[in-house]
Amino acid sequence: MRETKRPDKGAIVNRAARIGQLIGRVLQLVALALCVAVGSASAGLFGEAGGDAVRLALRERVVALRTNGDLRPGGGEIAARRLIPDFYASRDYAPVWSSPERRRALLRAVDDSASHGLDPADYQFDLLRRHADDGMRDAGRLADRDLLFTEALVRLVYHLRFGKVDPHELYEGWNFSRSLGAVEPVQALDALVGAEALGAAIEQFAPRLEDYRQLRVALLAYRAMEVLGGWPSVPVGPTLRPGDRDTRVLTLRERLRASGDQLSPPPSDRELFDDGLREAVVAFQARHGLEPDGAVGRKTVAALQVDVGGRIDQIRVNLERLRWIAQDVAGDYLLVNIAGFNARLYLDGKLAWQSRVVVGRPYRKTPAFRAEMQYLVLNPEWVLPPTILKEDVLPKVARDQAYLAEHDMRVVTNAGREIDPGEVDWSGYRRGGFPYQIVQAAGPENPLGRVKFMLPNPYSVYLHDTPAKTLFQRSERAYSSGCIRLERPMELAVLLLDDPGQWSTEALEAEIAKGETRNVQIGRRAPVLILYHTAEVGEDGRTYFHPDLYAQDGAVLEALARPFRFSTVGRTGPGR
């Protein structure tokens, strides 16, 4: 029989201590679990009741908004009078902004709207900050806060997507795209409030264009210049030229240094207009649409006197214009900037061609619009537009009918039948009402040159070649009656024909040399976007400011400064 060993007293004591510790730990865990359970039950009991109270308060406010069309939660305003009721009804009036982190994310996005050239005040930023306190317990105040934050989000993404200003209010016949696509607004808002990274999701509504990104960087740089004190204003006086010595040269140097145009160190004689200063003046003139002659005359002084705040406003205006047209800028497109006197063709989103252009005079403005280019006309005839016919040609023909023959023009009916000019009572049509057309034959005198690019539109505006090539050497090129003259039309024609086997440059020139008027369908249809942008970032990364040729910046800036409202021009918006 095996002898049983008696346990050691010390081991028993140690084991009992360990068992006691384990029991104590278990009891602690049980107590903790009970506390958590009780706490959760209490939170559920009171939190859910609070949630129900907020839902009820939201429902009451939304019903009032839908019924009365007006609601001022927390002293604020709800402009999205249709979208917000539909949105909250779709989620059974559950609050959206219970999370402090989400509220802070929206506050950051609203504050950052200034980097887009927008105004945080349009989104009731001060009210948002006052209502962002997480210590609120009143269901009515929580409902007000929820509505204010949702309203701010709707306003912000609406502006980033479409712009604050509705261009239809400024330009009759504006026809650029303006939609959310196939997504319903309530669905878009629901997806947005559920996005994991709210700030990044909001930014997706802004134009995803390189031009827009660069202009935002320029806005930041010019605001930094403003914080540093801006720049001095160069006094008016006689034209300053290289070699001159003048006290105004000191101010000129400081002005150009502040805007980053003066790079070389000044000479010991700081009042001397040296070669380094001339280079700085030329750089400034090139960036501001002026003749780069290095002399500081009346126009250059006027540009130098625009303060940094004026340039910031100009950038803001053009960020807004980019928001108007961003939905149409993708893939293949031909972009004409009226104010910049330039045209650029993008194929598959990459720059393929660019050219200087001549645009309409200020009293015969080239309109901004979108159109589809359809075909080319080789050796085009010129059917005189009504304005030129009435204001220019009819008075001349009334004085001397030989004008028609001298310019290779003929009179035709609308059906194309030629009329003997001697049978027309020219004096009777000096005030208008001319029942015929006047057509100038193709040839070296024809103002359309050798090729015309047809893009049907209500303005009878098109792009074309021109025999007047010397105008392209000027910095300001507003000499046409509304149509757009191209410096390098043949290169553009070959790219759009998109058929190297049939239409090389040589083949196109040979066809034109036949002298016959001929329509040719293009192989690559690129939408034509005719725009008016007075600020843009060049390929060198510098900001270029174009003269406000048609004085259109002021109206956009004024509209940006107006109180917030959703547009109701020609469409149903979130405010209706």
UniProtKB/TrEMBL annotation:
Q: Source organism's superkingdom?
A: Bacteria
Its annotated pathway reads:
Cell wall biogenesis; peptidoglycan biosynthesis
Where does the signal peptide begin and end? none
Q: Where is the active site?
A: H464 (proton donor/acceptor), C483 (nucleophile)
Start and end residues of each L,D-TPase catalytic domain:
332-513
- A Pfam family that this protein carries is YkuD
The protein's UniProt keywords, in alphabetical order, are: Cell shape, Cell wall biogenesis/degradation, Peptidoglycan synthesis, Transferase
* Family per similarity comment: Belongs to the YkuD family.
- Protein name as annotated: L,D-transpeptidase family protein
Q: What is the organism of origin for this protein?
A: Aromatoleum toluolicum
